[in-house]
Amino acid sequence: MEAKRNAAEKAAAYVQDNMVVGLGTGSTAYWAIEQLGKRVGGGLHIRAVATSVQSEEQARKLGIPIVPFAEIDQIDITIDGADEVDQQFNLIKGGGGALLREKIVAAASKQMIVIVDESKLVDELGTFPLPVEIVKFGFEMTMRKLADLGCELRLRMKGNDIYETDNGNYIADCDFGRIADPEQLHQQINLIPGVVDNGLFVRMTQHVIVGYKSGDTEELRKKNT
Questions:
Q1: Helix (H, G, I), strand (E, B), or coil: what is residue 138?
Q2: Do 25 and 98 meet the contact criterion of CB atoms below 8 Å apart?
Q3: Which end of the chain is less crowded, N or C, counting CB atoms within 10 A of the terminal residue's CB?
Q4: For the packed helices 2-12 and 27-41, what is the interaxial angle rounded to 10 degrees?
């Protein structure tokens, strides 16, 4: 927990007055929102777009102003976590179920800072099952088409019920093993009718902040090629 908090606080320091900020979802993003709440309480003026009902509720309790997409043209900076980060800064996200809103917000952002603890750094993506958000209608067929791509998958459950996202969709957690070409797999998955989007975030960030158990943090930036 301390590693996540340290990384989150480092990321929150990049937020400046009058910015529009994207608020991520999950255990690491939680600490970034907490830190931003403290800064807002101290006089920081920002507007925020939340990637989940959970994050929106947390932000409102802390006094962070939430605005709808209709009121903004672009997001200055988004701070969010990830389930895995590879050496090319490709991500797997969606363990918390908010991948679609997270991707929409990330795509609208000038800058996305990803905050993780050291356990999330990998050589290749795929140890963490890839979440795929799918519509309810015909979901059985959609899952069969996903399986045809070579994965083992399961429908995400919440107790005895099928888990539903904030958008009213289902999530299929797909184990592809090692993902050698994230961009190609991303395209193959999203071509399946019934798929809304998947948790592969390809070339969406150039800045990763890592928190370590030692208490140290490290900032990784992707070199322009």
A1: coil
A2: yes
A3: C
A4: 50
Q: Which two tokens stand for residue 143?
A: 């899952």
Helix (H, G, I), strand (E, B) or coil at 197: strand
Torsion over CA: 223, 11, 203, 189 (sign)? positive
pLDDT tens column, 26-74: 999 999 999 999 999 999 999 999 999 999 999 999 999 999 999 999 9
152-155 vs 170-175, strand pairing mode: antiparallel
Which part of the chain has CATH 3.30.70.260?
A: 130-198
Q: Taking residues 106-135, what's their average pLDDT?
A: 97
- Spatial separation of the C-alpha atoms in residues 201 and 128, rounded to whole Å: 14
Residues of the chain with CATH 3.40.50.1360: 2-122+202-221
pLDDT tens sequence across 189-203? 999 999 999 999 999
Res 222: pLDDT: 84
What is the CATH number assigned to the segment(s) 2-122+202-221?
3.40.50.1360
CATH top-level class for 130-198?
alpha beta
Q: 84 an active-site residue?
A: no
Marked catalytic residue, from 56, 84, 102, 133: 102
**Which tokens sit at 72?**
């903004």
